UniProtKB/TrEMBL annotation:
Protein name, as recorded: Cbb3-type cytochrome oxidase assembly protein CcoS
UniProt KW Ligase keyword: no
Membrane-crossing residue ranges in chain numbering: 6-26
Keyword DNA damage: no
Organism taxonomic ancestry: Bacteria, Pseudomonadati, Pseudomonadota, Alphaproteobacteria, Sphingomonadales
Annotated keywords: Membrane, Transmembrane, Transmembrane helix
Gene label: ccoS
Source species, domain of life: Bacteria
InterPro entries cross-referenced by the UniProt entry: Cyt_oxidase_maturation_cbb3
Length: 55
């Protein structure tokens, strides 16, 4: 029973920390461009990022 007296406040505190971190990320614009990264992988670059190796 004393274990529950420790674990329940600990679980509530961890949940509160997670909620605060989520709202901080939401306020700082972390979720603004959800589709950008998914579409960016489909875009072909005209020039390769690594130059070809010449023998």
């Amino acid at each position: 029973m004393t274990g529950l007296a420790l674990l329940i406040p600990l679980a509530l505190m961890m949940g509160l920390i997670g909620l605060v971190a989520f709202f901080w990320a939401l306020r700082n614009g972390q979720f603004e461009d959800c589709d950008g990264a998914a579409a960016r992988i489909l875009i072909e670059d005209d020039q390769p990022s690594v130059p070809p190796v010449q023998p």
